[in-house]
Each structure stands twice: as structure tokens, then as C-alpha cells.
Amino acid sequence: MVQDAMRALILIALAALPLAGCGSVADFGAGVGAAATAPLDDFNLRREHIPTVLLQAEANPYDLRNLTQCSTIGAEITRLNEALGPDTDEPPAPDGSTLGERAGDAASSAALDAIRDTATDFIPGRSWIRRLSGAEQHSRHVQAAIQAGRMRRAFLKGVGMNRNCAPPAAPSWFRPRGGSQR
Questions:
Q1: How sure is the predictor about 110, in pLDDT bands with cuts at 50, 70 and 90?
Q2: Is 160:74 a contact under the CB 8 Å cutoff?
Q3: CA distance 166 to 160
Q4: DSSP assignment of 157-180
Q5: DSSP assignment letter at 125
């Protein structure tokens, strides 16, 4: 059974390799390794790192200490953006990719999902293993930290608007009223 799963992983990877764009073959190769080792997450042998800024947000999402100026609010929002990715009020960055490259990326993503699913499906009682190993609890902690980070970023942008700050200390669409920024 394990040999069949490994054969399936190899066949999926080989079938999807031509679909990956030239620039993304290395990324696809790295993704295959990560997808194939996904069971390490289930056994809690490998853990996703939680950035410090998200742990701080989880501990106190409404903390305003040392955030008395627009520049310090903007810096904190920038730290959160680095951990979380762009906020929903930010326009998507133009990546300059062609339709063919986007199709290749979609095919690569689908192949990596299939590899990850195959690698984890052969574990009997996977949900129990995740619970007993602590992997499920860590996964919930990661999600809670992400949620707290999003909540803190939204709160800080509201504070920035209230203080008449320019973005990034406020939403990207906000234009400060005339006068000084506090």
C-alpha cells in the first residue's frame, strides 16, 4: 500500500512537471518535497512557525503602547502585513504573468494538492494521530494567531483613520483631511 502511494506521488509529480512554467519548476520541486513530507506535520514532528507579531497580537490585539504617531502605527501595520500578506483593502499586485503561466501555476497547485493528499491519506486514524500528537492543537493555535493578527491590523487602521493618518497607518482608500497628522 505504501509502495502504491509512493508510485502515485511520483506519477503525479512527473505528469505535472511539464505544466509548471519555466520559472516555477524549482518552486514546484520544492513544493513536491513539502507535500510529500506533510505527514511530518500530522505526527507533530514539523511545526509551522508563528511570527512574533502574531503572538503579540494574540496576547493583546488592542494594545496602543508606543503607538502615539502615525509612523509607528504604520510600522506596526507593515509588520502585520509581512506576517499575514496584504490586507483586503489593498489592490492585488500586478504579477505580469501570462495566461499560460497562470494555467501552469494552477496545474502545479492541483498536482501538489494531490501529492499532499496522497501522502497523508495512507495514515490510518490520521485525525486521532493529529489530536494525540498535538498537531491539531498547534494548527488551531496558528489559526487563532492569524485571526488575532487580522483583527489587530483592522483595529490599528481604524485608529490611524481616527488620528487622520495616511496609509499604511489607515486603509489604502483613506485620504487624510487637511492639517497635520497626529
A1: confident
A2: yes
A3: 8
A4: HHHHHHTTPPTTSS-TT--PPSS-
A5: T
Of 178, 179, 173, 171, residue with least CA distance to 73: 171
- CB 67, CB 156: distance < 8 Å: yes
Half-sphere exposure of 139 (CA within 13 A, CB side): 14
Rounded CA-CA distance 161/68 in Å is: 13
Task: Count Cα neighbours of 176 within 13 Å in the Cβ-side half-sphere.
Answer: 18
- Chain-centroid distance of CA 156 in Å reads 20
Q: In Å, how far are 72, 75, 119 from 39, measured between CA atoms? A: 41, 37, 7
Q: What is the mean pLDDT of the chain?
A: 75
**pLDDT, greater one: 33 or 125:** 125
Say whether pTM exceeds 0.70.
Answer: no
In this structure, what C-alpha cell is assigned to residue 38?
506533510
